[in-house]
Amino acid sequence: MLFVLSIMLLSYSIERLLFLRSKKVKSRQFLDGIIALLKKKRYNEALTVCEESPSMVALIVKTVLVFRNKDPNELLNATNNVVLQEIPLLERRLPAVKLIAKIAPIVSFVGVLQILAKMLGTMAHTSTYFSSNTVISFMQQSMILISFGLLLNILGTLAYAFLYGQVKHLIYDVEWSYNEILYHMTITEEEGSNVNKEV
Hints:
Blueprint: H1 2-22, H2 27-39, H3 43-52, H4 56-66, H5 72-91, H6 94-125, H7 132-198
Helix pairs in contact: 1-6, 1-7, 2-3, 2-7, 3-4, 4-5, 4-7, 6-7
């Protein structure tokens, strides 16, 4: 059972790590490129850049660009919907990683009880000729099981903390990018309106 849990922990952790990395982008560089396009009024090209990137930042920026001429409440609802749809995808399997870390020591303890029951059964049938080597062998098996369970607990806890930190970092990037793109779009629009007034 512990072997199965270890395989699950490893596969879930690797899958989540690869998925989260695919959703990451260098926010500052990405936004600098988008803002440069917006200043040149190349909105379609900016949308194309967003569509070509699988990152969550690109998705939120694309939503802002699509709803830029809509009512502010409609824009806010659209971006909130995107975030509410994406966050569960980011956090997928994290509860499973956390659960594996928690139950691994319990599973190892159950294994120790099974070994103890087997040892007592053996002692009951061969009490006169029961050697110390047999007891040592049972103890070694128990210690290995407990150590493996605790190791899974430690690794699972570390994996969960790391992956959860990656999710929080992605969410922070999205919030920062959302505020930045709105700010620069407002500045760009104001500059455009000032130019029209001067003309």
